[in-house]
Amino acid sequence: xxxxxxxxxxxxxxxxxxxxxxxxxxxxxxxxxxxxxxxxxxxxxxxxxxxxxxxxxxxxxxxxxxxxxxxxxxxxxxxxxxxxxxxxxxxxxxxxxxxxxxxxxxxxxxxxxxxxxxxxxxxxxxxxxxxxxxxxxxxxxxxxxxxxxxxxxxxxxxxxxxxxxxxxxxxx
Length: 172
Ligand code: FEO
Known about the structure:
Blueprint: H1 4-33, H2 37-63, H3 83-110, H4 114-144, H5 148-158
Helix pairs in contact: 1-2, 1-3, 2-5, 3-4
Bound molecules: MU-OXO-diiron.
């Protein structure tokens, strides 16, 4: 049986995952609008990943007989439309999400809620992957430089990303 406190915390995390999805969707529109269709595709794939993260929590609450509560999702704020700055914001955002998941693990441990702790292990691994992706892109940006040719190559490279998660949320 899951506690009300943990149910509330998971619902907060669902909102944070939905905000993440919304942020990446907004970034995708912004970058695609600037002519970076490849980077826009990378960000759109990330949007799908975030929706998957949210729906995995939704499914878990349903399995636990706990109520899902959807709150308003804040408007996404893009701090800069410069490519490198966008990925710096992406990285900072993912570090925030990692901190949020870690807080949940602490709560699960305090409550001896082993089922939720077990679920959260998947998210901990996922955050390692996401932060790794972001640091690699930032390294790539530095490597190829911020000139037109470098950004042209980065756009092609990031456009190769394909979704690894199920886009059908009944399969989360
Ligand atoms: Fe759902 Fe990007 O963490």
